[in-house]
Amino acid sequence: MLVVLMLTTMILPVQAAAAPTVTLTSGEAKPGEVIMLTASITDNPGLATYQLYFYYDTSVFEIESLRASGSFAQSGNILVNSIAVAEDRGRYDGQAGKDGTLGLWFNNIGMNEANSGEMAMICLRIKDGAAAGNYTIGLDYSKANTINENSEKVALKTSGGTVTVLSDGSNGSAKPEQSQPDKGTEEAPVVIDVAGNWAEEYILECAARGLVNGKSAGIFDPNANMTRAEFVTILWRAMGSPAPKGKATFTDL
Fold this sequence. Notes:
Blueprint: H1 2-11, E1 21-24, E2 27-29, E3 34-42, E4 49-57, E5 61-68, H2 70-74, E6 78-86, E7 99-107, E8 117-126, E9 133-141, E10 157-159, E11 161-165, H3 200-208, H4 228-238
Parallel strand pairs: 1-10, 2-11
Antiparallel strand pairs: 1-3, 3-8, 4-7, 4-9, 5-8, 6-7, 9-11
């Protein structure tokens, strides 16, 4: 009996563990609109550090923001955005042209983040005048800087997404739910000068909730001082923009 059991064990194939896979969602939008794509991981074996790279056609897209999401964002670790344009090579999709490259670095050395699900969100603005069609958003990772808590390299399978640019006059199908950031009850302004700032995540959250509008179209100026008037306006919006019920007693306003 024991011999039969041993032989059976030797004959039966050993099932290999599933390889961790990172995929990027797809979506559609018109020129001038912003689309949000989500990178998610399955079969996560545990990551202490990862670097993801997103590739896009600079003649069609502009970067609005890139940040960690899901459990990776909740752990409060170091996030670093880096932007570069690949001048000397073809586009990620193999066609002629110029790629933009945006990298996200998540760092939690010595600890594992083992949850699967969302790990990053990238927001892209479709440039005005962009031609209708399907455009590849490439996704890759750093093989040297994606490691577990023991500093062992973790190999990932990656799969990019596709953005369908609709013509300005197209009625197109309804956009997927993930293709647009949550704009709350007000039309959220899009701020373009906060990428890499320590407060980027908080500024974008406040913009999405309609609490801040920036100083002008697309400009937030995150390092400027806040005036008392701006501070009170944010508090008023946070309270639901109630109608005034009386006169202010302050004499210096």
